[in-house]
Amino acid sequence: MKNKTNQSTLIAIVFTIFSLISTLALGDEKGIAIAKETDRRDLGWGASTVNLKMLLRNSNGETSERQIRISSLERSEKGLGDLSLTIFDTPGDVKGTAFLSHTKVFKPDDQWLYLPALKRVKRISSKNKSGPFMGSEFAYEDLLSFEVEKYKYKYLKDESCITAKSKCFLMERIPVYENSGYTRQLVWIDHAHYRVNKVDYYDRRNALLKTLVFSNFKKFKNRYWRALTLEMTNHQTKKSTLLTFSKYDFEVKLNKNNFKPNKLKRIR
Fold it and tell me: Residue 6: inside a domain, yes or no?
């Protein structure tokens, strides 16, 4: 009887240790649960296209505008994130520029940039994903789809949201993928719909670098929320980038062939 008791105790201890290791891999239990619920609520949208106006503002308040089209395709295969294709229509000096992103969960992401002036496709190195995207305050890594396993999480507290009427979960997430330009991020997610409302990005010296604010939310297909306005402010350079989305289409027919690197030169 004593041996059986000892054996049961040992099994319980081993199980507890493995559960603890699994939890520590992604962070604290509540933080992980919030991240997973945020992800779960945005699964199943399939494919979409959207128009985008990008407004760049320098430290003197001077602005320049770009018109962009984005196509996205959701992937459900294990270990694979979403596909996205970004095409610049204006101004003339960037017209025809195309950016392709293949997000992965456990491996380095694949990204390519086609520059029409050079007539060549440039692969973005995993070591350069912290660099600025097309002169904006968004880094290449900011353009990847959200994947739960790319971060460790820590729930901090509840506090008022900036752009939503409900309370927000405030949590810290730490990138676990190599070559990230950030040591950590503070993320505000609203209680009502699990929508990201705000993100503070801290650089490699752990100093506040940028803040991204999501606003003007709209629900599509009676389920999927999208922020129609995003503003990224760089606290160190005093520059900002404002994104305004319009004409979302979730009924578009897209497949993986629309997101192949060898097609970038022929995209219009």
Answer: no
